[in-house]
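Late entry, benzoic acid complex.
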Amino acid sequence: MNDQNSMPPPCAGLRIGDIAPDFEARSTIGPVRLSAFRKRWLVLFSHPADFTPVCTTEFVALAREAAAFEARDCALMALSVDSLFSHFAWLRMIRDRFGVEVRFPILEDPTLVIGRAFGMVSAQDSDSATVRTTFFIDPEGVIRAMTCYPANLGRSVPEMLRILDGLQAIDAKGALAPANWQPGEPMLRPPSHDLDEVYGAGDMTSWFLREDGGGVRA
Ligand code: BEZ
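Prediction complete; structure with ligand written out below:
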């Protein structure tokens, strides 16, 4: 049964542009405070449970790409309702079975106080696990993007990196990232807000749909 009066559905607790609420928690690398991660990008993500199939593939994939996040000056921080000792045992199993060490912090959130504050908790009353929410937090602590996947669909690490690349390029260039944008591809100019420019444009679209370098996108 849904208990939508007392708990927002996943991803609905916070909005893009909000400052990520600060918290302190125990983690696999010791106590962590969210605000201590300011000045760098941060991907904060929740998973439903340790020792589950999809989550295991996500952690293996993320640990294998840890250097790619570092190269983007981005820290990773994971969270679930499981205990610290469950996290330790799971990481040990991942290391022994898959040959990769997860070195980014995994937080324990046994009371779901963080999960609830971030809208990471399933709206299903019967399920107190966090779903697969991901928050992309910029160096000022602002939530810039978020995704929400169900428990039975694993996240795409290339897409997580593309989101980071897109947000960083948007900030660096003051431009817009079009559909399917990849690093190195042209970006778009923000559309004109000037009616004279609209009427003066040489064609129907160039006042609002134009590559940052000047060309018109097909
Ligand atoms: C999984 O990670 O495989 C999983 C976790 C919770 C529910 C269903 C699947």
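Confidence is low (pLDDT under 50) at residues 1-5. Will revisit in the morning.
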